[in-house]
Predict the structure.
Amino acid sequence: MAKAASKPTRAAIDRGNFPHLIEALKKKGYRVVGPQVRDGAIVYDELDDVSELPIGWTDVQSEGRYSLKKRSDEAVFGYTVGQHSWKQFLRPPVVTVWQGKRDGLQAIPPNFDVPSYAFFGVRACELNAIAIQDKVYLQGPFVDPGYAALRKKAFIVAVNCGEAGGTCFCASMKTGPQVNGEFDLSLTEITEKGNHRFLVDIGSKRGDEVMKDVPHREATAEDIAAAERVVAEAEKHMGRTLNTDGIREVVYENTEHPRWDNVAARCLTCGNCTLVCPTCFCMTMEDHTDLHGKTASRVKRWDSCFTLDFSYIHGGSIRTSVKSRYRQWLSHKLATWQDQFGTSGCVGCGRCITWCPVGIDITEEAAALRVKPVMETQHGNS
C-alpha cells in the first residue's frame, strides 16, 4: 500500500514523454495492468506499452447499454469505466485456499508469493472502492492473507476524470471525479488548446522513485488551473444523481414499499450487478476431491446474493423471492453496509446500471423509496 511521500509535489509530463511512465514501472519490476480495447469494450489487462491504451476512444453508457465510439482527439483516458474492476486482481474470482494429499496426510498451504501489480488508470470511484475492500479484508479481527499480500505490493496510478459517463453519479457519493485517498501517482489529462500533457500528483515515496525515471518538468500554475477545470467540467455533467440525505433511514423504513414488487417484476436475478460492482465481496467455499480420492482442496470463489444458494441454510433458502434478493442487495449497499463498515457500499460508478440487461437503475429505485405509496381507497369511499 502507498506510503506518503516526504513532501507532496506536482509535476507535468508532456504527451511525448508519457510512454516513459509505463516503462519506468516495468523497470521497477511491476506487472502493469491497465485499460485496453477488446471485444467492443474497455477492459483491464496486462499492458506491454502505451500503444495498448484506449487512445482516442470513449464509451457511451445508459441503462442496459454500452458501446464504444471514436473521439475527435487522441485522449488517453477519454472514457469512464467498463465492466471490469480492480477487485479481479486483488481478489481473484477463484482462489485455492487449501490442498491436501492423502499419501502421508500432506497439507499444502496456499502460495502467497504474489505478483507486484501496478494498476494504471484507477478512477476516483474505483480508488474509493479499493478503500472499501480494504475495510472488509484488512481491518477488524480477521484479515484475508491473500488480499493483504496483493494489496501491500500494489502500485496505484490514479486518474482524475475529465468527463462523466451516462450512468455516473460519483459526485453524489462524494467519491469523485476528483481523486482522493491513498495513491502513488495521480494523473490529470489536459488536452485543451492543443497542448496535450498530464498533471502528476506524487502521493508516495514509491511514486517519487518512479518519477525519477520519467522525463518531466515542474507543474506551472497554468497546468494546475487547467487540471482543475478538467475535473470541474466532469462534475457538472454527471449522468445520474442520488440523494444520499438520510438514505439509510429511508431504506430501513420502507422494507415493505410496493416499489420492491415493481423492481422484482423486472429483475432477472442474473447477478450482473454484483459481478461488475467494484465493492461487492460475497464469496462461497467449495470442497473438491479427485476421482481417486487421493487429493482434496478447498476453493474460494465469487458469489452473489442474487443466487438461491447464497441464503441457503438447513431446510432451504431464506430468500426465495426475487423481491427479497433485490431488496437484500440494495439495502446492503445503501444502508446496512454503513452499519458494518461505516461507509456506503456504493461509489457511484454506475456499472450496475449499465450492465443490467433490463436496465434497472439504483438511483431510480432509491428515489422511488422516498415517494410515499398511494394507499388504496376503502370500498365505498370516494
User: Anything to note?
Assistant: DSSP finds 13 helices and 16 strands in the chain. The longest strand covers residues 31-38.
